């Protein structure tokens, strides 16, 4: 249905004049639309149908709590300084403020041997995913967790690595989908996983909310080492880990020879609209000919990026101060408590709920159901927006993802609405 909607939309937008530029075959090969704008469209249509309904948004993972004052004040101070001769600054280093790069290395990778020079500050992890795709060229092979954050797959399609979309199963022919289910503890069976050049791996995982253990990541690093592969490790939700699972791939010995790590201030510091992230490219990581990958990534950054805002980077430094970390931890704890409330509500309906402990997402199972139908039914009966698991790949069918980002009173109201579903036989 989504594909047909997209095709109709494209037909409607044809004009009388056409250029002689041929549309990229890779763009034509993309699924009809990116998942999250589609959710926003469904939400808008629901609001038009029920104009007086109070819609609760537990879908798109956007933070809701205010940025702590000590962090916002640091950005305001930097912005005000720009109005003075002494405080004005123009272009900064494309790789990021040296002080911030050093502080990220020290505060988040202190015992892992990561240096400030290996940290590249950016405008967010999602942008860095595409920069890494540009770095790695058109001919590399790719593996992703299934289910998976859509940007790994969609950017692979755009860069021509995916092959054709297989209508019967919703997979791209040249992408390796590493099945992650409750049966394998949401960690792929590497004994049956074919070799690829690149392995996208997210922990804590979006969407399943599960974090890989040290033993599991040891197997992943060994697998990449044996195959000469590169792991692109997404640790954007590491601040939510509460059970001692690794917060970085570099906690595993040998990972610096096989892994690039991307991360973000978005979900632990409330920077979703402020935009600040980073990528770590170790000096030990090299191509097959021995050339250091960090040198090429530096070239990509210098070509495609003028550096993160100096105002925002001041906020990043404040986040990693003692006061900032303490303030952020209180916000993270609030979202973790929200997850517990929502988990109890869904389990009260008899649903199996995964995640929530080490990530701000619940992965709720509705066996034998269509995830889009469950999404639609919950929206229709409770005015709560979730995310259909199918949007994260074939492995997400029969699941929905539920975000715990919300104010406490909103989460409590959502919990009450879900509790009332007992009489509606949703399962």
TrEMBL record:
Keyword terms of this UniProt record: Aminotransferase, Pyridoxal phosphate, Transferase
Domain Aminotransferase class I/classII large span(s) in chain numbering: 54-417
Coiled coil ranges (UniProt) are none
> Which cofactor does the UniProt annotation name?
pyridoxal 5'-phosphate
What the entry lists under Pfam families is as follows: Aminotran_1_2
Q: GO molecular function: any one?
A: pyridoxal phosphate binding
In terms of CDD domains, this protein maps to:
AAT_like
Question: Biological process GO annotation list?
Answer: systemic acquired resistance, salicylic acid mediated signaling pathway
Family statement: Belongs to the class-I pyridoxal-phosphate-dependent aminotransferase family. LL-diaminopimelate aminotransferase subfamily.
Put simply, this protein is called Probable LL-diaminopimelate aminotransferase, chloroplastic
Per the UniProt entry, what species is this protein from, by scientific name? Cucurbita moschata (Winter crookneck squash)
């Amino acid at each position: 249905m989504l594909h047909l909607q997209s095709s109709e939309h494209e037909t409607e937008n044809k004009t009388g004049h056409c250029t002689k530029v041929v549309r990229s075959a890779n763009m034509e090969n993309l699924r009809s639309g990116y998942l999250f704008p589609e959710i926003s469209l469904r939400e808008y249509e629901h609001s038009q149908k029920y104009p007086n309904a109070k819609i609760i948004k537990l879908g798109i993972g956007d933070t809701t709590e205010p940025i702590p004052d000590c962090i916002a004040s640091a950005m305001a101070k930097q912005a005000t300084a720009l109005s003075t001769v002494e405080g004005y600054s123009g272009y900064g280093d494309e790789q990021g403020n040296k002080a911030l790069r050093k502080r990220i290395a020290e505060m988040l990778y202190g015992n892992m041997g990561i240096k400030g020079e290996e940290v590249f500050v950016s405008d967010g992890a999602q942008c860095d995913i595409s920069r890494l795709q540009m770095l790695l060229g058109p001919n590399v092979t790719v593996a992703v967790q299934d289910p998976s954050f859509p940007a790994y797959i969609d950017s692979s399609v755009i860069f021509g690595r995916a092959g054709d979309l297989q209508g019967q199963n919703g997979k791209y022919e040249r992408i390796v989908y590493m099945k992650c289910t409750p049966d394998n503890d949401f960690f792929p069976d590497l004994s049956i996983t074919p070799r690829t050049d690149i392995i996208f791996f997210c922990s804590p995982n979006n969407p399943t909310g599960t974090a890989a253990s040290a033993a599991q990541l040891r197997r992943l690093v060994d697998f990449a080492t044996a195959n000469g592969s590169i792991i692109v490790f997404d640790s954007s939700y590491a601040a939510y880990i509460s059970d001692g699972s690794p917060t970085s791939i570099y906690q595993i010995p040998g990972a610096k020879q096989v892994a690039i790590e991307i991360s973000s201030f978005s979900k632990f510091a409330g920077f979703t609209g402020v935009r600040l992230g980073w990528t770590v490219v170790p000096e030990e990581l090299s191509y097959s000919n021995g050339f250091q990958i960090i040198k090429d990534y530096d070239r990509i950054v210098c070509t495609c990026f003028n550096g993160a805002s100096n105002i925002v980077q001041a906020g990043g430094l404040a986040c990693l101060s003692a006061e900032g970390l303490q303030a952020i931890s209180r916000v993270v704890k609030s979202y973790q408590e929200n997850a517990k409330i929502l988990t109890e509500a869904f389990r009260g309906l008899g649903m199996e709920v995964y995640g929530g402990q080490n990530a701000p997402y619940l992965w709720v199972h509705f066996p034998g159901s269509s995830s889009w139908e469950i999404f639609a039914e919950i929206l229709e009966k409770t005015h709560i927006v979730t995310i259909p698991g199918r949007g994260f790949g074939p492995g997400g069918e029969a699941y929905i993802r539920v975000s715990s980002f919300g104010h406490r009173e909103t989460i409590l109201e959502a919990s009450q609405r879900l509790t009332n579903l007992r009489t509606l036989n949703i399962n």
